[in-house]
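Case study B.
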Amino acid sequence: DSGVTQTPKHLITATGQRVTLRCSPRSGDLSVYWYQQSLDQGLQFLIQYYNGEERAKGNILERFSAQQFPDLHSELNLSSLELGDSALYFCASSVDGGAYGYTFGSGTRLTVV
Amino acid sequence: TQLLEQSPQFLSIQEGENLTVYCNSSSVFSSLQWYRQEPGEGPVLLVTVVTGGEVKKLKRLTFQFGDARKDSSLHITAAQPGDTGLYLCAGVTGTYKYIFGTGTRLKVLA
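Model:
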């Protein structure tokens, strides 16, 4: 157990639907990061939050949004889902900006059918 | 666009062999991490290197940060099937931009 909790572990949904992925960071970590990993592809950075505020944005689609709540947990919302959104979505946390690395959760596998 | 290129992309070796994975960039990094990821799981941090020329050892794994802090290598001695996985390097720039490498898939055959 890395200390970063992601739910659900698996999600199957239809095209056009909306889903919410949840992440609880490791205790004491203020930064939360969301990454997408498609089959045979590397980790694509989506967005970072630090203590409730958006800190950095990567290649996140307009159909996707995220937020970090006062208790530091974070949610990633994916809407108008397309087949190409099927992927592993990882949340990671760090105490600072990640200079000494991230702690990753075990991911949510999203399948859009 | 900053890139972290890893080589080789794929590596399949027999148990007991040695191997080296490379991570190269034209950018200078303030620190660099190596992760290992197993199928269906999140990447797990193996090591962080900070100083140019730094060498760190973790049992049979040796990590080196280049003198100019633009590249790094991971050497595994006497590879075991348990070393199988996706190895990712990640570099941090001075502005806290975090860049993951393209990944090296290692398979160690018993």
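The CA atoms of residues 40 and 84 of chain B lie 13 Å apart. The remaining cases will be described in the next quarterly update.
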